[in-house]
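Data deposition worksheet. Section B asks for the primary sequence of the deposited chain exactly as it was used as input, without tags or linkers unless they were present during the calculation. Section C holds the resulting structure in token form. Section D is free text for depositor observations; keep each observation to a single sentence. Incomplete worksheets are returned to the depositor.
Section A, Depositor: J.P.
Section B:
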Amino acid sequence: MNYDPGHEPRGATPDPALLWGALLASTAAPKHAMSALELDGYLTGVIVAPGPIRPSRWMAGLWENDEPVLGNVTQVQSALDAVALMFNTLSTRIERSLQRLEAERICDYRPAFQPIEGKPPHEAVRTWAGGFWKAMALTPAEWSALAEDERLQPIIAPLVGFIELDDPEFEPAEDIDDRLDQAAANIPRAILLLRKIAQLRESRASLAGPTHRTKIGRNDPCPCRSGKKYKRCCGLS
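Section C:
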């Protein structure tokens, strides 16, 4: 069933996951569109990136080289609006959890792959990490520099374990399942620490001059490239 914005109750906030799911189920969907779980990882990777990423760039990364069919413009715009809403909501959650981590030393952040109780399935974490990896590919030089810093390698290590690399010589350890369980448990804290590193870099960069904001403002140009302001386009709902 396709999402119809006209059927949404007045004043209600549409569920962004449903909007995205509607696009995936439609004929407008790109063949290689991200699942909702992979999208959460992708947006997380954009938010905690060690360097700023223009909204137009990471929005283009949603489709890779396979853009949606634009015959149903309303549906595509609804999906883009859902992504913008997911991004801003996720960004706020990460910032709040980081503040609590700094103030109380409590990590209450829960990525989309994390169930309320119990351990997450490794395949779910891999799917999420696959999206995160696609975000890393948007700023490879910055991530490489981060990975080469020995002081920061323990922060990145939990993510690396779930990123599928094409290495035929790789042989998993006998206790690989236990290691992956521990890595998955460490990812929420790693995300918050990566965001803190990004904040510090943004502060230093601001001393040298203005920087591009990652969060989508209402008066910013809409990432869908319509030429309109975000509040007049994808931000209407």
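Section D:
The chain has a mean pLDDT of 80.
The two ends are 20 Å apart (CA to CA).
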